[in-house]
Structures are given as C-alpha cells and as structure tokens.
Amino acid sequence: MPTNSKETPRVRFAPSPTGYLHVGGARTALFNWLFARHFGGTLILRIEDTDFERSSEAMVEGILEGMRWLGLNWDEGPFFQSQRLELYRATAEKLLASGHAYYCFCTKEELEQRRAEAAAAGRPPMYDRRCRNIDRATAAARKAAGEACAVRFAVPEGGATSFEDAVFGKVEFANSEIEDFVLLRSDGIPTYHLSVVADDVEMRLTHIIRGADHISNTPKQVLQYRALGVETPIFAHVPLILGPDKTRLSKRHGATSVIAYKEMGIVPEAFRNFLALLGWTPGSAHKDREIFSSEELIELFGLDGISKSNAVFDNDKLAWFNTEYIRAYEAERLLPLAREEWQKADCEPTRPESEILAAIELLKPRARNLKDFAGAFRAYFSDEFEFDPAAVTKFLKDEHVRGLLGELAERYAAAEEFTEESTEQVLRGFAEEKGMKAGALINGSRVALTGQAVAPSLFAVMVNLGKERVVKRLAAVKGMVVEEPPA
RNA sequence: GGCGCUAUGGUGUAAUUGGUUAACACGCCGCCCUCUCAAGGCGGAGAGUUCGGGUUCGAUCCCCGAUAGCGCUACCA
C-alpha cells in the first residue's frame, strides 16, 4: 500500500468547461465527494480550462449549477487552471532543466503531415522524436532567436511504466508505446498532461478518482511524477457510463446533461442514489436494498466497491428511484419543489397551504416526477385546468352520465356532511336509485373533478377539493360538449 | 491498425473469494385487491455465468486463446 493512504485524503473533481455537467462527470464528482466525506477528507474543485477555444464561462456556471443541484459541495476552489499558468511553466522549466523534457520546433502542420504519412505507410502515428536530439545549446539559441517551440516530455526509450490502480489492479504500458507528448504548447499554454500533474502535485492530492477514459493517460502522468521526484497518488479509475445500446452515452440517448434531469422532474437525491449505484456496490451485506440516504452512501462508500466493467444508464430504474423518493418525502418537503413546477407552468395555486399540503400527500404516491404536480395534478391546485381528451371520451362521452353528474352535484350541494364516507354513500345511493353501476358515476366524477382518468381514491379527492369545488365541477360537465374523437 | 481495459438474465449488481437449485433490485408477464391508475400482496418467464481450451475430484471464480464492447492513440481534456 502506498504510504500516503494514511493521510486524510485530498481528492478533486476536475471538469473541463467545454460542456455542461454530464452524467459521467456527475458520477465522478459524486464518487469523489462520497470518498472525501467518508474519510473526512477534502474535495477540491478544479476547472480545467486550458483549452481556451472550447471553454466558456457559461459552461463553468452550468457545472457549478449541476453540482449544487446534486448537493455536492466542495471544500477548496473552484480553482481555474487558466489562472495558474505560472505554475505550469515553472513545472515545465523544472522538467527541462533536469533533462526530462526538451524543446520541439516541429510545427503543427509538419506534425500533421508526418502523421498522415505514417498512417498511410501503416506505421504508428507517434511523434518521431526528431527534436529530442537537438542539443540544448542550439535549442536554446533557436528559441532565443524567436523560433516557436513546444516543450515535450522525453519518455524513456526502453522498459515499461506501470501503476497500481485501486480498481483495476496493475496496469502496465511499454514505454515504446508512449510518445513524447507535449507539455507546453508553443503559445506557452500547458496541455492537459502537464497541468493535471502540476496541479495534482501542488494541491497535494492523495487519490485520483476519475473516469476510466484516463487509464491510457496515466503512464504519461506517472512518468512526470517520477521525473519530478514526487510520490504518485493512488489512482482509482471508474468505469464509464454507457447508453442503452452500450455505446458511449451521448445526446443520442436522450439527456446527457444533469440539469436536464432536474428539468424532467427528477429529485436530486433520487438521481444521486441512482448514480451512486452505477459502477459501485455497497457489497453483498446490503444487496437486498437499493435506496440509500446520502449519509448511508457516505458511510458505505469505498474504492473497493467500484466495479471494473462499464455500466448502462437505465432510465427505467432512475424513474423507479424517483417515484420512491417522491413517495417517501414529507409533503412539506415536496411543496417547494412543486412550487417551482407551478411557476414554470404558470400555475398559481389559490388554495390555503394546508389544503395544498393535503393534496400533495394524497398525490405523491402516484407521482412519477415533479412535473406531474403542474401537469396531471394541476386540478388539485388550481381551478384552471384542462381536461385530458382521452379521459373525457372514455368516461364523459355519454350525455346521460353528464346529466346525472349534474344531478349528483345537487345532492352534494344539499348534503350537510362531506366526508369520504358520506360522499361515497351519497354517490352509491344515487347510482342505485338511477339503476346504474356506481363505477360509471365514479369514473365520470373523477374526470369531472380532476380532468384525468387517473387519480387517487375519488372520495378522498372530493374531501380534499371540498364541497363547493366538487359541486361546481360536477355541475359544469352537464353542459360540456364532447366531440367524437376523429376516427 | 497499435496499445490498454472489460465480459454473470434486457439493465444495475451479489455469489463467504474453487463446492449455492447462480441471489437481489429495476423492467417484463399473470393473479389478488379495486371506483381509475399507482402502490401493496402472491406467483412466473428470463442467465448455467461471451465462446473454446486447459488446471482441478470440482470451476462464475485460476491460466491460455478467441470474440465482442469500451477507452486511448492531438501543440483537446
């Protein structure tokens, strides 16, 4: 075991702001967060924005928004690599001075051409190291004369570079397979290879938990740690998240941005729980359970539970987590979340808060997502709601039924009591009197009251809505015009 | 193409690390409940562990090979 495992861990999430926070990044952030919290360590947020072409401030904000939504707080940062260029230049200097790096005067065009030639000839397209042999004095002179040059790392000619990955075990690469990669571009901006290690060293990171897509980059980093004479951190590569077709998750598969899930009405805790179990397992001791609070996740999390194979993002399972969380939430907790939805949907609930909470309580077992509160459940909160056409044709198409509902409204208007028992009694009695099945009136009432064919128990709905509203809505369907659906 | 990694029902994962009728959850199907839809209860289908070789009394588990998928292969990160 590396000795630094005994220190309190320092980990980081280091997204590059070339896009919003996507699910893979969110999962990496989550794992780092869980790890840090589990050990009482430190989570650092570092924005890797050295690609000025593709990075943007809006994306930085988007990433922070995603982190906040998921409830992933960090202890240090955010640091921006674009503001730490001196560190990278100094690190490059160090490598240059110790002979681990050299100036390369090849231009981008030359390199591209040679790569194409190599590919055509069936040779590996690696850099041919031609500038490595330029002696230092000449190189310095050319640079001093103003010739543009990059700085490349001098990869050892023979042997192999390996590291012990906390999830994959020993991973080894022949040095002959590693090219002399660029550390500093000719404009003085570091490449990822340099800035990661410079920062990871400077920030005293103990564990690097990141996507498995970085496995192949790791030997380049290990080489630099050695050249710099510093101990390597513990690497833990996390398998990737794939789409349902087992190809890399992309827009093709639907939402890839975390915020899109917020907009779909997913509860952040549900998303977090779902994400935590993608590529990680708390072990056989907990295999009979899938719902874990964040405290439990923190307590249970460990690198040894991370699996080696890629995981497929399953929307159905996410939906299940979401319904579980919504159902388990207190109405009070759901209220602000529902409010957001009402605002977005231009729905202004006019009822007293106690009634709104009661309605939420009634509805939450049937909610699939937060959007339902402003969509299918709108009639519980506002008197302005629409009728689902399918529900209408299914249960209110019959004019006779509509007429009976009008009559029923009068019965309710005259009723003194208005409880679940009494309302049911009235309806069933009325149905019997009219010689028809109660079901037809119940279903019709449901649509009249809620606009939907699906709802909680009708009489519970009536009590929640209140006598006045029930009477009004039942009476209103009498004059409803129902068009035959187009065949 | 080269290099690396991975491989248990449709999906996520278990399997005391060589001895189980291969387990759990999601999804799917059916039944019950019932005023609808969920939920809930009960039951079911679905993998013999990618394939082929070994090692072993015995392999999901160890070894080799093949195949497939993914990743990397930039003066992107």
Description:
- The structure is a single chain.
- The protein is mainly alpha-helical and 487 residues long.
- It has 19 helices and 12 strands.
- It has helices spanning 23-39, 57-70, 85-97, 108-120, 136-144, 192-202, 218-228, 258-263, 268-276, 294-300, 315-328, 331-344, 353-363, 389-395, 399-414, 420-433, 438-450, 458-465, 467-476; strands spanning 10-13, 42-47, 76-80, 101-104, 150-153, 160-165, 169-174, 182-184, 207-211, 234-238, 241-242, 311-312.
- The protein has a 3-stranded parallel sheet, covered by helices on one side. A 3-stranded antiparallel sheet has the order 4-5-8. A two-stranded antiparallel ribbon has the order 6-7.
- Helix 7 links the parallel strand 9 (207-211) and strand 10 (234-238).
- It is elongated, with a radius of gyration of 32 Å.
- The protein starts with 9 loop residues before the first strand and ends in an 11-residue tail after the last helix.
- It binds one RNA strand of 77 nucleotides through helix 4, strand 5, strand 7, strand 8 and helix 6.
